[in-house]
Design a protein that fits this description.
Blueprint lengths: L10 H11 L5 H25 L3 E7 L2 E7 L1
Antiparallel strand pairs: 1-2
Length: 71
């Protein structure tokens, strides 16, 4: 039954689709890409906070005091 092969997804077909969908890029390259994206997001958020004048956080939990300010 050759016609039924397109309707059922076996492990070999699924791995082939994963390779085609990711263009054969290895997992560690994807990890590096996501790390770079996360770093860029943090930098852009810091730039946005800086442009809006900064932020201040004062937190007291029992004997623990946390004062953080950025500009």
């Amino acid at each position: 039954m050759r016609g039924g092969a397109c309707c059922s997804a076996d492990a070999e077909g699924a791995s082939l689709m994963a390779r085609v969908g990711r263009y054969g890029i290895p997992r560690f390259v994807w990890t590096l890409i996501w790390i770079v994206v996360c770093i860029l997001i943090v930098i852009l958020l810091a730039l946005l906070i800086h442009n809006f004048g900064g932020a201040s956080l004062s937190l007291k939990l029992g004997h623990f005091y946390l004062n953080v300010g950025v500009n």
